[in-house]
């Protein structure tokens, strides 16, 4: 079986409001279950593709600072 996780995740959240996305992300993080990480990765990929170079720079700088410790 050829299961496309990206497509399944996108279909599952299609039409969600900003508040619903926030709740989904917060829930995934608070649970700490590793099986939810691919979904967050799909969100990051979609955000990255829709973001400007300035947003990429700000994001990667924040990530770098976050993981310095």
UniProtKB/TrEMBL annotation:
Family to which this protein belongs = Belongs to the SspI family.
Protein encoded by which gene: sspI
Question: So which domain of life are we looking at?
Answer: Bacteria
**One BP term from GO:** asexual sporulation
- Official protein name in the record: Small, acid-soluble spore protein I
Q: Where is it located?
A: Spore core
- According to the record, what induces this protein's expression? Expressed only in the forespore compartment of sporulating cells.
InterPro entries in UniProt: SspI
């Amino acid at each position: 079986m050829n299961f496309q996780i990206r497509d399944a995740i996108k279909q599952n959240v299609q039409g969600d409001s900003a508040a619903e996305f926030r709740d989904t992300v917060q829930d995934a993080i608070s649970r700490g279950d590793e099986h939810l990480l691919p979904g967050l990765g799909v969100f990051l990929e979609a955000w990255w593709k829709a973001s400007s170079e300035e947003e990429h720079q700000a994001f990667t700088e924040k990530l770098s600072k976050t993981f310095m410790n």
